[in-house]
Amino acid sequence: MENKDKLRHVSHTNEWLEHIYETIIQKDEKEYAFVEMNIKQFRYINIEYGCAFGDHVLVSMQQLLETQLKGRGYVARRYADTFDFFVEHNHETHVLDSFLMDIIDAVFENGIEGLHKNLYTSFGIYLLHEECPPFAKLQTLAGIARKQLHHDRRTFSYELAQQDVVQEYLKTYRLSTKLTQARFLNQFQIYIQPKVELQTHKICGGELLMRWILEDGTMVPLNEFMSTFTKNGDLYMIDLQHFDKMCAFLQQRIKKHKAVVPISFNVTNLTVFDGDFLQDYLGTFRQYSLPKDLIEFEFTEDIHFEKKDQVQDIIDIFRSEGFTCTLDDFGNGFSSFDLLMNAAIDIIKLDRLFFQGMLSEQRKRVIHNIIDIAKIKGIKVLAEGVETKEYARFVEAEGCDYIQGFYYYRPMPLGEFEKLLDSDKILPYTMDDK
């Protein structure tokens, strides 16, 4: 309780700083910057040292800031481990190279009594010129800047609340809202890109892809929304909905004694590390009467490398259930050959980077050796992103099992893919085969 009282006594309030802004800063002819500062990973201190010691750290930081600002600014603790302050400046570089560096130097040289740990900080900076926005807007703009950090130094990170930074934030927020609206409007459609067996040159499977189709039929390019999509939670729900729809589609065709082929589903970082992933997908699949080898899960190399043991456990569970598991984008990361030698998988998909540019002798040897190692390991190989006859003939001659790319088929709406399933271009998988 004593620490709490001390914390309240030392820390100027948010209301006090707003009063300073309205009565002093706005009337002063000097140039000021408004700065939001946050102590990174402060909860670690509370957990490791206790909340009372955490309060001691905040009091010490407050005192350090007041010392650095003496005669040139004002500081208040807004909440928790976030501080706001005004500081005089004559240019943005003055804020960065003088004041912020003074703070960082003081923290690292003097430290906090009793804390044997470096404190790392982040800053959002708004430079006041002729315009003086309302205080709440100042806090919002500096907060947006701090969360859009593009500048990292060894001991701190910062961002200026310039127009482009604010616009980037607003653009991302508006896009996230549009993506949610599009989900409710069912604008994310199922597309399938066929996979071809090279021995027969017939379609032996398909990869489910998602496309955003607007009301007027316009397709929104993936690179315009995917980075936002992976952060707002909608992608997981759409992936699961599409998995459910595709299981229903396959079951309906089987009941009508029509040909089907295995369909693969992409597993993203967002999906695989969701706590409900296994339960959601296995639970959905069990609602249908489908052979398990009609379902294939594609794991990208980057998620496998990031949390190797956790992802391998999930792959092992899926394989033990009878599903096919594929390592996607093979060759597009640092861990490719480690995964090829040690991961328990069924198929590797050679990344499209292998099939871009001239088919040189060196490139031929690399592709040949990968296919050769995969065969020794009993792993099938699919060449992805093949667009030319030269590459198609080469991978076939090298003993590659499957091929996927524009040379054979582009991604297509589910309705068009169904027409292919009813044609003689299919290497059919039917219930009679089981």
Mean pLDDT: 86
Order of strands in the sheet with most strands: 7-8-10-11-12-13-14-15
List the total number of helices: 17
Outline the low-pLDDT stretches: 1-5
How would you classify the helix and strand content by structural class?
alpha/beta
Radius of gyration using CA atoms only: 29 Å
Instruction: Give the tally of β-strands.
Output: 16
Please tell me what the overall shape is: elongated
The CATH topology of the largest domain is given as: TIM Barrel
**Level-2 CATH architecture of the largest domain:** Alpha-Beta Barrel
The overall number of domains is: 2
Protein name: EAL domain-containing protein (Putative c-di-GMP-specific phosphodiesterase class I)
Domain EAL: 172-425
GO molecular function: cyclic-guanylate-specific phosphodiesterase activity
Organism: Longicatena caecimuris
Describe the structure.
This is EAL domain-containing protein (Putative c-di-GMP-specific phosphodiesterase class I). InterPro entries: Cyclic-di-GMP_PDE-like, EAL_dom, EAL_sf, GGDEF_dom, Nucleotide_cyclase, Rev_trsase/Diguanyl_cyclase. The chain has 434 residues and is an alpha/beta fold. The chain folds into 2 domains: 2-161, Reverse transcriptase/Diguanylate cyclase domain (Alpha-Beta Plaits, 2-Layer Sandwich), CATH 3.30.70.270; 186-433, TIM Barrel. Helix content is 46%, strand content 21%. The chain is built from 17 helices and 16 strands. The strands form 2 sheets. The protein has an 8-stranded mixed beta barrel with strand order 7-8-10-11-12-13-14-15, surrounded by 5 helices. A 6-stranded mixed sheet has the order 2-3-1-4-6-5, sandwiched between helices. Helix 1 (2-10) packs parallel to helix 4, helix 3 crosses helix 4 and helix 4 (51-69) crosses helix 5. The longest helix has 22 residues, at 163-184. The chain is elongated. It starts with a helix and ends in a 13-residue tail after the last helix.
